[in-house]
Amino acid sequence: MPPWESELEQFFELSLDLLYIAGLDGYFKRVNGAFERTLGYTRAELLTQPFIEFVDPDDVQAMRDVLEDLERGQDVIGFECRFVCADDTVRWLQSNIRTIPARDAIYCVARDVTDRRQADEELREAQRMVEATAEELRVLAETQAALRRVAVLVARAASPAEVFTAVVEEVGWLLRVGVTLMFRFEDDDTATVVADWGDSATSMPTGIRLPLDGENLTVIVRRTGRSARIEDYANASGEIAERARAMGVHSGVGAPIVVDGKVWGAMIAVSQQPEPLPVGTEGRIGEFTQLVATAISTIEARAELAASRARIVAATDEERRRVVRDLHDGAQQRLVHTMITLQLALRALEGIGGRARALVEEGLGHAERATAELRELSHGILPAVLTRGGLRAGVDELASRMPLPVENAVSVGRLPAAVESTAYFVVSEALTNVVKHARAGHAEVTAQIEDGMLAIGVRDDGIGGARPGGPGLIGLADRLAALEGRLRIESPPEGGTLVSAAIPIEPR
Asked: Per CATH, which fold does 389-504 belong to?
């Protein structure tokens, strides 16, 4: 062997790269030590088997394609494939390969890139995790923002319709679905759509009442009291399912709305896409149904409180009327008879002086003062003129006892007793404050019905600057709240004062 060939042999064996020479017959002819060490086979094992046997089965076809390129005389640069090692592990080799047709041989220089491939895969997996986390954070942020918007509505005591409409819209946008519906379950095995969003208006608009028949999401949620999903609406039945199919619905998810332990209704989200809704959709809808349940509980509690307060107001007014009747028919009549008797006694004592006449005169004076005080007391409780003649008559009576001119511009007829008495007390308290604090020369009382509300106003031309925190006005505000009414005071300095109130004629 010439010296230069010996030197090349040393390079061949000392190379850290994997070197091999293969024949076009498919067998290795020469392999270096790095190749043996990397794959873990002996040189004899490598040289006695077709080299394709050492290629990972998943990369065999790619290797065959490369061999075809080599047979056409093309060099192959940077080809990567997996080789199976002696211990059954797999190593990735990156190869530069050239064919020398004159020698019937393939020359290859390769390096082990397994660690780099693993690092690349780990980096890709990390990127996927980052992207997934970012998506999850985006979804979480969107969900929390939507929940906050609904929670604000609930906190500020929005009407049920406002809350329901907001929820179906928020859920629709959040889940990217075509239709969202909210049902209220009725006692006659029907369900009423209380809110809808998306393409539901033609088949299931708000207000429609549908039978709970067949097997569909709404029926399943009501029966089980749990969340449910339907992957293929072609298998659903009942009128609700038929209407859903008419809207092109393929799949859907539903969650119960549970109020005070009872399944009140259901929140339904359906998709018109062939793919089913993602896993976890039930939980995301459930977060909103909890807010809906809170809103319903709060609304019902407020309604019950308002009804209770209204009952108290009505009972109190009725008790006042009874007291007024008792005073008028009892103590007041007796005092009148006493005054008449004392006046007759004075006539009988005419021309007679002395202590007897003085005592009778003193008794008559006491009786007259007691009658006047009793009359004022009965007016403060609830005047009979209000019960007999209504609000205008009651305001006339109040105006007649004021030390300043009061214009009566009340233009309403008879009203429900609770509304009438509350309006009377608003006017009475306002006129009392005018006399006590306003230094006014004139006052005006107005009352008319606007959009189902009784609108009352008491305006004066006094010094203004009234403070709304007095006990009388606070009591009026509480009484108005019992009827779902509201009180407002406008009193700029030197600008007079307007006390106004609005009371629903028929409380909700």
From this structure: Heat Shock Protein 90 (3.30.565)
